[in-house]
């Protein structure tokens, strides 16, 4: 009898110890994780969190709009077209991994030439012959072209170190620590000076910046050569290499990753995150609103994977019960309108009175006070083997990117006539100068802000890099593996670890 009682007591003590260890952290994985936002950042972080913490954690992903966020499509004339992010560059390693993992394919490339429009005439035209293009750039701009390439390559080479650090499990709790570790003081410096300043310093001419560099920045970011050099270099890298998109639509990556991570997608708007208790580990209460009314749930880890603009028209978002208060993560975003126009291009506007002779599929513009940034003859997201681009005199689907909705008169300028116009209005990219310094990834013990990195550069791949960083940060913090957080001199450590 006494023996049985002692065994029972021992068992009870073990249970209590386990409960205490769980309360203090111990080795138990987190029970529930909330992710706010189902764009590429939120979908990728759900996937990485599930990979690191294992299949037992429950991940809830809150989405107030549509899965995919800024990866989205619109249907025109029974076909679907990209209405947000159009493409990714060839060095997007996480995005390429996702594609393989999900069994998706890159869309077949349908070549088309581009030109840069200066408001009255074309300042640069691409030809069919690659060498001739290089020759023309050389002829027009001399060594500027080569210097630009070298500058971009140097930035990308350093940025790519992040993949090695992440493969070794290293994470950063702030954007500054991350940039410092990739490119030392030079990278941070590049977030504080303009593209124009940095390029002039390496010997690129003002004319090349005005004619070519600004057109590319306007097309990819809706911004000018006054934007920060770091974000600018990332955009210019995209314009150099080959670009790709996903067969069936870029947003398939998001829905695919959410499915793979077995995340529970909840269609609701998150209105606040409150610190519920700090006994042992922190516990967070996430409040949300949906058609079904208000609700709330408790989580061990919360990841915010949506930009937090200063004044969200769709409702305020609040942090509650944090002392000291959570830092201000807000900043302004650049509105961009994408219009998908099914119609006949007015080629006269670009100096081609005969539409049959208009040879371009894509027009970029320089910084003249124009009403549009780019004009592209676009292919649907599903490209069959027999697909060909429309002849310039035929009706086609054109994607126009502009800072504000196109007025009727502007549409009448760009198109001889049209059947339909459909638009998507975005808060596309950060207005980089609108806040001082960077928000941190770690806002509280286990509360993270993925989009902090968007303030250094904004692209789908950069958000995937931020997702991997936040998943590693949450994991390393949960298991107190602080040797893997904010380590200095990582290049050296990673080399000697191999
Ligand atoms: C027109 C356009 C063109 C672009 N072109 C390119 C390009 O060619 N290449 C490239 O790499 N990048 C491009 N970008 C940038 C790229 O789209 C973004 O950097 C990236 O998609 C951001 O992903 P995200 O997941 O961080 O944010 P988002 O995609 O914005 O996702 C955030 C999600 O959170 C949801 N959400 C927000 N608040 C709440 C809340 N309170 N509760 C619940 N849900 C919420 C939103 O509905 C949204 O779905 C482009 C962007 C735009 C708009
Ligand atoms: C950045 O570097 C340049 C030269 O390398 C220097 O002139 C400039 O002052 C630096 N700017 C900042 C903000 O550190
Ligand atoms: C488009 O492509 C996707 C991905 O390959 C595929 O699942 C879908 O069935 C295709 N749709 C059509 C209409 O061909
Ligand atoms: C087309 O462009 C020309 C040249 O800019 C302009 O005169 C004309 O009004 C435009 N619209 C149409 C419908 O031709």
Number of helices: 14
Measure the end-to-end span. 58 Å
Shape: globular
SSE class: alpha/beta
- Hetero ligands: flavin-adenine dinucleotide, 2-acetamido-2-deoxy-beta-D-glucopyranose
Question: CATH homologous superfamily of the domain at 2-69 and 249-331 and 433-497 - what is it?
Answer: FAD/NAD(P)-binding domain
Q: Which architecture of the domain at 2-69 and 249-331 and 433-497 does the CATH hierarchy give at level 2?
A: 3-Layer(bba) Sandwich
Strand neighbour order, sheet with most strands: 7-6-16-17-18-15-19
Task: Describe what you observe in this structure.
Helices cover 35% and strands 24% of the residues. It contains 14 helices and 21 strands. The strands form five sheets. It has a seven-stranded mixed sheet with strand order 7-6-16-17-18-15-19. Strands 9-2-1-13-21-20 form a six-stranded mixed sheet, covered by helices on one side. α5 (144-159) packs across α10. The longest helix has 23 residues, at 2-24. The structure holds flavin-adenine dinucleotide and 2-acetamido-2-deoxy-beta-D-glucopyranose (NAG) (3 copies).
Keywords:
alpha/beta, FAD/NAD(P)-binding domain, seven-stranded mixed sheet, six-stranded mixed sheet, 14 helices, 21 strands, binds flavin-adenine dinucleotide, binds 2-acetamido-2-deoxy-beta-D-glucopyranose
Question: Summarize this, please?
Answer:
It is built from 14 helices and 21 strands. It has a 7-stranded mixed β-sheet with strand order 7-6-16-17-18-15-19. Strands 9-2-1-13-21-20 form a 6-stranded mixed β-sheet, with helices on one face. The chain has a 4-stranded mixed β-sheet with strand order 12-11-10-14, with no helix packed on it.
């Amino acid at each position: 009898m006494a023996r049985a009682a002692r065994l029972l007591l021992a068992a009870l003590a073990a249970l209590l110890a386990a409960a205490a260890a769980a309360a203090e952290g111990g080795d138990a994985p987190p029970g529930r994780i909330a992710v706010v936002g189902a764009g590429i950042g939120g979908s990728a972080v759900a996937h990485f969190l599930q990979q690191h913490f294992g299949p037992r954690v429950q991940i809830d992903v809150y989405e107030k709009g549509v899965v995919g966020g800024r990866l989205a499509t619109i249907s025109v004339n029974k076909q679907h077209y990209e209405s947000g992010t159009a493409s990714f560059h060839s060095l997007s390693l996480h995005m390429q991994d996702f594609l393989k993992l999900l069994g998706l394919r890159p869309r077949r490339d349908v070549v088309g030439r581009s030109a840069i429009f200066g408001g009255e005439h074309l300042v640069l035209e691409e030809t069919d012959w690659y060498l001739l293009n290089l020759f023309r750039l050389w002829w027009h701009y001399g060594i500027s072209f080569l210097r630009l390439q070298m500058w971009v390559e140097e930035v990308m080479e350093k940025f790519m170190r992040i993949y090695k650090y992440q493969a070794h499990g290293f994470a950063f709790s702030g954007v500054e620590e991350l940039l410092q570790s990739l490119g030392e003081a030079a990278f941070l410096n590049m977030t504080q000076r303009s593209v124009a300043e940095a390029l002039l310093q390496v010997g690129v001419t003002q004319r090349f910046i005005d004619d070519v560099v600004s057109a590319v920045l306007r097309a990819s970011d809706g911004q000018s050569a006054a934007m920060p050099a770091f974000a600018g270099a990332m955009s210019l890298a995209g314009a150099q290499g080959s670009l790709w998109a996903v067969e069936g639509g870029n947003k398939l990556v998001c829905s695919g990753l959410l499915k793979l991570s077995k995340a529970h997608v909840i269609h609701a708007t998150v209105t606040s995150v409150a610190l519920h208790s700090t006994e042992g580990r922190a516990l967070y209460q996430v409040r949300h609103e949906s058609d079904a009314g208000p609700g709330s749930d408790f989580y061990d880890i919360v990841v915010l994977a949506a930009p937090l603009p200063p004044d969200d028209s769709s409702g305020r978002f609040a942090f509650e019960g944090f002392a000291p208060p959570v830092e201000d993560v807000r900043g302004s975003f650049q509105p961009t309108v994408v219009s998908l126009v099914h119609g006949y291009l007015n080629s006269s506007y670009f100096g081609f009175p005969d539409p049959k002779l208009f040879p371009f599929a894509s027009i970029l513009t320089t910084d003249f006070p124009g009403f549009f940034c780019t004009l592209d003859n676009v292919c649907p997201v599903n490209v069959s083997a027999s697909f060909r681009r429309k002849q310039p005199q035929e009706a086609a689907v054109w994607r126009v990117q502009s800072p504000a909705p196109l007025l009727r008169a502007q549409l009448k300028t760009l198109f001889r006539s049209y059947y339909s116009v459909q638009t998507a209005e975005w808060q596309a990219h950060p207005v980089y100068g609108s806040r001082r310094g960077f928000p941190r990834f770690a806002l509280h013990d286990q509360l993270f802000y993925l989009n902090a990195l968007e303030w250094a550069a904004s692209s789908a791949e950069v958000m995937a890099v931020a997702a991997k960083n936040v998943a590693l940060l949450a994991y390393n913090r949960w298991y107190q593996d602080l040797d893997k957080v904010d380590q200095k001199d990582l290049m050296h450590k990673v080399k000697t670890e191999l």
